[in-house]
Amino acid sequence: MSELEEFAEALEVAHRNASRWLASLPERPIAPHADIDQIKDALGRELPSHGTPAPEVVEHLATAGEPGLVGMPSSRFFGFVIGGTLPAALGADWLVSAWDQNTGMRLTPTTTGAEELAAGWVLELLGLPAVSGVGFVTGATTANFTCLTAARDRVLERAGWRSGRDGLAGGPKVRFLAGAERHESVESAGRMAGLGLPRLIPADDEGRIDVAALEAALAEGEGPAIVALQAGNVHSGAFDDFAAAVDVIHAADAWAHIDGAFGLWAAASPRFRHLTAGFAAADSWATDAHKTLNTPYDCGVAVVADRSALTEAMGFTAAYLPEDGTMSEPHDLVPELSRRARGVPVWAALRELGRDGVVALVDRLAGAAAGLAAGLGGIPGLCVVNDVVFTQVCVAATGDEATVALGDALLADGVAYASPSRWHGQAVLRFSVSNAHTDAEAVARTIDAVTRAAAKAGLAQESVGLA
């Protein structure tokens, strides 16, 4: 078999098994059928002395690995704010792997061109400044890191310190502030950027930052400061008051960053754009395409209004790297030099959907969340504990033990999945609606599954007893 034939057969095996996997999702139980040790046994723990033909390797991986797969792309998987995959985005992602272009440089016209188009379309859809720098990274954590690093260097420069040249030691301390219900990825990004843990500002019951408390905290100190705001609380889906908060931040000569892993996409919809009012005046934004936009994992998007702040923080030159001398290279916008063309599936998803399709997708996800909230709130013994404003729904039973039992029963049922979590001191089940394929039928089947799980967990009896 020639190498070209081996490529063709390996890809055919992958296509056949991928199609089988996608076809199984409508009825496949969410939970895996095997644990990690069982998968290791099936794959083979010992490195073989001799090689194996590529098609056989791919077939073995697909067959041995299938029992350990989680139904994450299912329309009834509501854990961890994980989106599904649009057909064009998946196909484009396969091409990205086959093309194998290092998209750190403008030396690759096809992938660079597609990414630059995608970046412009994202800015246009979200209503962000057209001159912004846009980098395609692994996810919201890295997007937050990228933005916060640009923010760090710029606010230190305003204070007379060149951290890019001299490092952080000896320079002014950067004050880092965030709402009490910030996502932990903001803390991780801040640590990596040398900012340490943020000072936490009080938030209201839905997780929105207290703007008056923020203003007071900024007034207490002096020197460079960065504030991380939030578009889409991970439990409630709530959005900070950007119009007021950004004004307060800029009045203190501080940098306003917005973590909007899934919530930033609300700006694309006329029905939900009010949630992001005033956010375009911020200095940087982080979001994911593999959530709301439904591109394959992984793809985060880092956006910085001052493109030069981003390129100065991330960029570098080397004698062996090609430069066209007219504009920055793709690697000047992200922490990586070598990387896959993550923005190409973004281009494909946006081309498949079009402007109207993106609006319809955002509206459909939020509508599914509202439908879930209405149905789940009607199950005896269950209560929706957040104000459902976008795509997050949190439910709780009449005590932590009952809520945990409900989650266990739902997992065992296999039809749907929600993330066990804790919010406001109580156990909750969090339903995050991010999959483009979550339709009315998926919502109805999920409500039926939760109803069965509630009965198994004895919630109906508890509700009657409490009446």
TrEMBL record:
Source organism, top-level taxon: Bacteria
SUPFAM superfamilies listed in its UniProt record: PLP-dependent transferases
Cofactor(s) the protein requires to work: pyridoxal 5'-phosphate
InterPro entries: Aromatic_deC, PyrdxlP-dep_de-COase, PyrdxlP-dep_Trfase, PyrdxlP-dep_Trfase_major, PyrdxlP-dep_Trfase_small
Pfam family, one: Pyridoxal_deC
UniProtKB keywords: Aminotransferase, Decarboxylase, Lyase, Pyridoxal phosphate, Transferase
Record carries keyword Magnesium: no
GO BP term (any one): carboxylic acid metabolic process
Similarity annotation: Belongs to the group II decarboxylase family.
Identification of the protein by name: Aspartate aminotransferase family protein
Organism annotation: Gryllotalpicola protaetiae
Taxon lineage: Bacteria, Bacillati, Actinomycetota, Actinomycetes, Micrococcales
